[in-house]
Amino acid sequence: MGALFAALALCGCGFTPLYAARGVSPGLSAIAVNAPHGRTAFLLSQDLEDSLARDRSVAPAYRLDLTLEQQNYPRGLQINDVATHNETHVNVGYHLVDLATGKVVKAGDERVEVTYGVAAQPYAGVSAEKDAEARAASTAADRIRLDLAVYFAQR
User: Fold this and answer.
1) ∠ at Cα 47 (29, 152), nearest 5°?
2) CATH assignment at residue 77
């Protein structure tokens, strides 16, 4: 019952969901992603391409150029100088280029930090590191997609 009243209240105040704004979905689906090489960059570009829902039957109107810097830091050092967990910092820079004019219409940076436990077993450690990279890429992709949706909603 409370959800019904909330829905009625939102209808009366002129609230429009971000993705319902004119131009947001068509704008996002017209973006081609250009990512650098590397595992995290590949995961980031895959997440962005999936979430932007690019329409491949139409030539892109925009190109999203990405740069990525990744650094790993050991944390929680024990007395024997072995870390108990690692911290991965991923900094993604992006430029949205209008292909018709060649001008950058939106630019930004997203910084993501994730941690993961250090395992005694080598394969478990590799798996934890790969999972941290995937989480960082997914988080950065979500933030970039939201920035781009806001840009298209305000145009």
Assistant:
1) 35
2) 3.30.160.150
pTM of the model: 0.80
How many other C-beta atoms are found inside a 10 Å radius of the C-beta of residue 59? 9
Q: How many domains does the chain have?
A: 1
Is there a domain that residue 38 lies in?
Answer: yes
Task: Evaluate whether 118 touches 82 at the Cβ level (below 8 Å).
Answer: yes
* Residues forming beta bridges with residue 106, ordered by sequence position: 96
Long-range contacts at 49-56 (CB < 8 A, ≥ 24 apart): 51/141, 51/142, 51/145, 52/28, 52/145, 52/148, 53/25, 53/28, 53/29, 54/29, 54/30, 55/29, 55/30
pLDDT single digits (tens) 77-86: 777 767 788 8
Res 23 pLDDT > 50:
no
Write out the residue range of the structural domain in which residue 113 sits: 20-154
Residue 130 burial (CB count, 10 A):
14
The SS3 of residue 72 is strand
